Amino acid sequence: MKLLAFLLASIALAAVYNLDVASNARINPGGSSILEVTSNPSTGYMWYFVPSNSAKISVDDPRGAFIAPATELAGAPGKQRFTISCSQLCVEGDILEVILALQRPWEQAPIDIKKVSVEVTNDQLD
């Protein structure tokens, strides 16, 4: 029960970055941040986290978590959320790159790519 409370508190404190309007995010060493992007899986397209070559940054789920829209309108887009974590290898001043690809699971090439610059900082995140 304590672990669940800790995890929920950690998620609540993580900064959320809207990738529809931003291509930058910030993260604390050993901390996590949330990347959010508009998504409409009813079209077959979803955003996927492209694995990083760095041991400094990781993602909880490469497919993210889908958050349904507030409307019941069929085909309305929702949001995909990716929780990224920075390992203890991260230090203040590191600039890491996260890549998301928009594609259908059965197709080999994405139709869109988002590159996100993630700054590691010791400052408090908003």
From TrEMBL:
Residues 1-18 form the signal peptide. Residues 30-120 form the Proteinase inhibitor I42 chagasin domain. Coiled coil: none annotated. One of its GO terms (molecular function) is cysteine-type endopeptidase inhibitor activity. Transmembrane segments: none annotated. Keywords: Protease inhibitor, Signal, Thiol protease inhibitor. Pfam families: Inhibitor_I42. This is Proteinase inhibitor I42 chagasin domain-containing protein. It comes from Blepharisma stoltei. The lineage of its organism: Eukaryota, Sar, Alveolata, Ciliophora, Postciliodesmatophora.
